Amino acid sequence: NMRLTIRDITAMKRNNEKIPMLTAYDFTSGMIAERAGIPMLLVGDSLGQVVLGHDSTIPVTMDEMIHHTKAVVKGTKRALIVADMPFMSYQSSRESAMLNAGRLLKEGGAQAVKLEGGTRSASTVRRIVEIGIPVMGHIGLTPQSVNQIGGYRIRGKSQQGAERLIEDALDLQAAGAFAVVLELIPSDLAQKISSQLTIPVIGIGAGPHCDGQ
Fold first, then answer.
1. Model pTM score
2. What are the tens digits of pLDDT across the range 95-114?
């Protein structure tokens, strides 16, 4: 009884199958989601708010992410488990990014990691992928940048913002990301990005036209 791989997820897009994805934070939520047939689970750093009671994802540590990832992995056998890289676990250097991504697989038991940022994160994504770790991108509203953005607001509404997001998505694909999350962007822009990319696009509040939700 093998786990699904990034190849299975990519094939779902090729075969026009919708890709459901849920966030799980512990053994029980992982088990329930898997029983419902969800192919891909995210151990989200949103556990900062949902589980730990912080007002943002900023305080979440690597050790907390590993702790929760281990629990979700134990509750599942088949789902592909993607673990979020928390704030400052990949931004300061490529070396620390590689080490921390490795910890989420080695200690956490995840099969892939997710990190925020498009073009600015592309070289980091490339290095992590080169050492054999699948990476999911995350653009649009990036919650770890909440202090800079000034709250949780819709992204990509202007022509310039839309063009930048398309470029972000293409750069992540070129860097080797196996999928990309689009959070809180206009539906028509999300549709455009999904059709331009060969990798799956998972929407969070980005309309019904993404490859997954």
1. 0.97
2. 999 999 999 999 999 999 99
